[in-house]
Amino acid sequence: MSSIYANGQCCPSYKRQPEFIVSYGQLTGSDFFGSWKTMSNDSRKVSTETSNTGADFFTARYFLYSCLSLGIAGGYIDQKGNISERSGAKYYITSTYEHKAATIAFELNYIYRIRRHVDIYTYAGAGPSFKTVITNYVASSISNEAPAKTTRSSDFIFHYCPVGVRVGGRIGAFGELGFGYKGLVSGGLSLRLGRRWCSRR
Length: 201
Known about the structure:
By secondary structure, the chain is mainly beta. It is built from 1 helix and 9 strands, in the order E-H-E-E-E-E-E-E-E-E. The chain has one domain (18-192): Porin (Beta Barrel), CATH 2.40.160. A hairpin with a 4-residue loop joins strand 3 (55-63) and strand 4 (68-87).
């Protein structure tokens, strides 16, 4: 952190600078734990097939110190899928569903290695998630069409990213490994405003 660079600038710092981030992630905590409250017609064995999964997030951060920032993240998940129920040796699609979730979370980010065009960082966040599941029952050889049902719930959810790598200057691209509401693997683009290299003072 104390390296002096050839152009005379030293002690890289982002203090008092904002950062704006857009990201997309896969395999969220809800996917792993199956916390969606999907309805099936009865107690028969069921299987689910989900498509269009992923978490879209917009995050705004402000650096309170040279490497430490506080941010707020807003995200949305929209998943669609089918529920199949077993009858004999076959599964039949008996309903379709749509999962929607809106999340607001506060995040604390720390950059533990800064180089001119590469930052390595970690962060943790937590906040409420408001979920809606819409289940539509369809006609099949073992089920009848029925009115759609909607369930709503809310959870307090978390995210932890042990390592993320950002490449670039004012505009950069990044990739992250983590666990929670942003997904096991995520990435995107970020914009930092202010002076790229400045004194810690």
